[in-house]
Amino acid sequence: MQQHLAILTYLIALLAATCQTPAQTSPLSHDWPQWRGPNVDGISHEAGWDAANPRELWRAQVGPGHPAVSVVGDRAYTLGYRDSRDYVVCLNVASGETVWETSYPSEFGNADYGGPAATPAVSNGKVYTISRHGLLHCWNARNGKSLWQRDLRKTLGATPGSFGFSGSPVVHGNVVFIDVGVVAAINRTTGALIWKTANHGAGYSTPVPFKFRNRLLLATFPAKGLIVINVANQKLVAQYPWTTYYDINVATPIVSGTKIFISSGYNTGAALVELTPSGAKRVWQNKAMRNHMATCVLRDGKLYGFDEGQLKCMDLATGEPLWTQRGMGKGSLMLADEKLIIMTTKGELVIAQASSEQYTELSRTNAVDSQNTWTMPVLSNGRIFCRSDKGDVACFDVSGK
């Protein structure tokens, strides 16, 4: 009875949230509140910024880990590890000074990939975080006070993969969506479980809410392949089996109309899948784009992303590679104003034109000192935030002012 009441409350909230689906986010909003931005697509609508002359504003040290920076207003949020604890850190975007930090006991994990991995989500004065060990926390965004927490291993029966949990929380309406093998909807205010699916095996990806035929669906990429869920009734709409060594499906699915792009590393490759009334069918599948960790971005039917250790442009419709640029390692990127904002493995901030014709570099800056920089850069309100695995955060002014 209690769960039925929770689902009814959720459906009422869902009706109110339908007009706020990711595809309808205002282009005037330049906050970057969660993993891959407001629409979970790696794209900012911020325009007119200075790509040629990034100017360093400040640096901060938050502790080792891989979460990206989430930015809302004049505050930036991320996580790091030190002294056997995970730290949630709030920084002033103008100065880099710590506004507040809070922590909880944790373990570092794998020596090469340790520390927290999931990016925080910020919404309506609250910050949501997931630890590698499955602790979901809700914090007061103003002062860092703990509002509620859930152990997802106990609440959902989730079992971490070899590298722990790394999929980020995604806020949509009154719900926090998570994928820890078990996909779940959590009430963002109370932390109550609204619904959960069966266990699909823990991967490392983040769920993407999207509209399809007037239904709100959720695409996610757990251990054994792509699954698409009808949020209203939790039924499985489609699935596409996908096997990667060690179950390392990391890249976030990219939704484009009726089609979904998925990719993974270890020489597995990529596929474009089309949703049909009866499920999903393959459009193409090849090894021309192997997203080991970083997710591609999509512009005008062209994908830009890291095929293992090389940057590549690919035609989404056909899977045909258009150009390749070497020398950046297994980097990461986002898209804004027809430009690619790239972090190389060595910690260089590179800005290039997003063109399918050829690779054209606009600027290159030494941002952070590391050999394992896998965290995506973030543009928000005229500033680019870069973060290394060592926990160095660097902020660059690209406002042109």
Would you write up a description of this structure?
- Helix content is 5%, strand content 46%.
- The protein has helices spanning 2-17, 152-156; strands spanning 43-44, 55-61, 70-72, 75-82, 85-92, 98-105, 121-123, 126-130, 135-140, 146-151, 170-172, 175-180, 182-187, 193-199, 208-212, 215-220, 225-230, 236-241, 254-256, 259-264, 269-276, 279-286, 297-299, 302-307, 310-315, 321-325, 332-336, 339-343, 348-353, 360-366, 378-380, 383-387, 392-397.
- The protein has a five-stranded mixed sheet, with no helix packed on it. Strands 2-33-32-31 form a four-stranded antiparallel sheet, with no helix packed on it.
- Strand 20 and strand 21 form a beta hairpin.
In short:
This protein has 2 helices and 33 strands. By secondary structure, it is mostly beta strands. Strand 9 and strand 10 form a beta hairpin.
Please describe the topology of this protein.
Elements: H1 2-17, E1 43-44, E2 55-61, E3 70-72, E4 75-82, E5 85-92, E6 98-105, E7 121-123, E8 126-130, E9 135-140, E10 146-151, H2 152-156, E11 170-172, E12 175-180, E13 182-187, E14 193-199, E15 208-212, E16 215-220, E17 225-230, E18 236-241, E19 254-256, E20 259-264, E21 269-276, E22 279-286, E23 297-299, E24 302-307, E25 310-315, E26 321-325, E27 332-336, E28 339-343, E29 348-353, E30 360-366, E31 378-380, E32 383-387, E33 392-397
Parallel strand pairs: 1-27
Antiparallel strand pairs: 2-33, 3-4, 4-5, 5-6, 7-8, 8-9, 9-10, 11-12, 12-13, 13-14, 15-16, 16-17, 17-18, 19-20, 20-21, 21-22, 23-24, 24-25, 25-26, 27-28, 28-29, 29-30, 31-32, 32-33
